[in-house]
Amino acid sequence: xxxxxxxxxxxxxxxxxxxxxxxxxxxxxxxxxxxxxxxxxxxxxxxxxxxxxxxxxxxxxxxxxxxxxxxxxxxxxxxxxxxxxxxxxxxxxxxxxxxxxx
Length: 102
Fold this sequence. Notes:
Strand 2 (84-89) and strand 3 (95-99) form a beta hairpin. The protein is α+β, with helices and mostly antiparallel strands. Helix 1 (8-32) packs antiparallel against helix 2. The protein has three helices and three strands. It has helices at residues 8-32, 35-52, 72-75; strands spanning 76-81, 84-89, 95-99.
């Protein structure tokens, strides 16, 4: 049986879909309370994005230091002030700051 050639564009599309699915699974597991599995899904999605040079467009949903998927009241503190939003990861203490939109 002949193998079908998968071009770069096809591979990037497939990788993008898989990254989206992994972030969905990470969200489900984080809401269930299984944070270890959620971290694993986030790390797999980021590695897949690096491998296929696809941007994992899910910023501000996980901690870039410890890869914890954010569930706002449980493991992240969100504060606004001085024209910016501060998100503090309650697992590792890392603080994300970004400007408040208009």
